[in-house]
Amino acid sequence: MWLDETLHPGIRQSLRADNILHREQTDHQDLVIFENPDFGRVMMLDGVVQTTEADEYIYHEMLAHPPVLAQVAAKGACENVLIVGGGDGGCLREVLRHARLRATMVEIDQGVIDLCRQHLPNHSAGAFDDARATIVISDGAKFVAKIDERFDVIIIDSTDPIGPGAALFTEQFYRDCKRCLTAGGVLVTQNGVPFLQGDELAAGYRKFKKLFRDGAFYVMPVPTYNGGFMALGWATDNAELRQTPVAEIASAYNEASLTTRYFNPEIFAAAFALPNDIKRLMHSGC
Ligand code: SAM
Question: Which residues are catalytic, by number?
């Protein structure tokens, strides 16, 4: 059996499903978790590949470590992190590898958490039960609009801007996130694949530039996110943050005793070096 990804109108990515582990319409999304010979267990939501056992480490390491390590380098510590989305638990797992912080994860769909605990246990690897983690079931946009807590890092590990995820790409949401950041804190967002979702990149950059002193993107390849580089948004009032010297990132990395499969301190700097076509896309909406 083959399952088709339907994110892009003109492209179909088909993945062989040797064994459907679970399929249901949760309160918010059509969820399927299946086994594929190349990528291991795969989760799709509303027909879009979200995460796979084989390549999730790239995405989750790059989502978590650049912002946390930059905060540690800039402030001496990163104490409080908010994750919006991230129901598979991979981002929470990576964030909690930094011993001296606490994390709140706001996920709209309890079904994603429950089914990923059961069928993708290595994603969360116990993170949901970590005493430093607070799990909230809510629309992230509603949560951020009313919370009084402040966070050094806010990570938007969302689906694409369709269905429940659309609320996490608005200017008002980014404005609310900014209000919830500590001084010099940083917002990181899942911003799609520029080659196929350039309008998402341009729209995000336009909002970042309007709301923050520094808006940027950093990139990495995630094999199951079709179309080349995946972009993560970076928005902060500390314009020097993404210029943090590699040596300072390395010092924070070593102090945290991190062992990572993709990320390393040199990649912190390299990932922000964007090719001209992505730079052009970024500025196309401004
Ligand atoms: N790695 C994926 C990607 O790059 O597309 C994201 C994975 S993670 C599974 C996406 C999560 O965002 C899902 O668990 C989904 O339920 C959650 N989500 C979508 N809209 C949300 C919202 N408005 N508030 C909170 N969580 C949301």
Answer: 157
Instruction: Output the six-digit token pair for 145.
Output: 């609009």
Give the closest residue to 107 by CA, choosing from 125, 126, 78, 133: 133
Residue 223 corresponds to which amino acid? P
**175 CA distance to ligand 1 centroid (A)?**
19
pLDDT, tens digit, 9 for 90 and up, residues 54-105: 999 999 999 999 999 999 999 999 999 999 999 999 999 999 999 999 999 9
Distances in Å between the alpha carbon of 210 and those of 41, 188, 203, 272? 40, 16, 11, 20
**Any atom of ligand 1 within 6 Å of the Cβ of 30:** no
Two structure tokens written together for 103? 């994390």
What is the domain-level CATH number for residue 33?
2.30.140.10
Whether 5 contacts 12, CB under 8 Å: yes
Question: Do 67 and 209 belong to one domain?
Answer: yes
The SS3 assignment for 24 reads strand
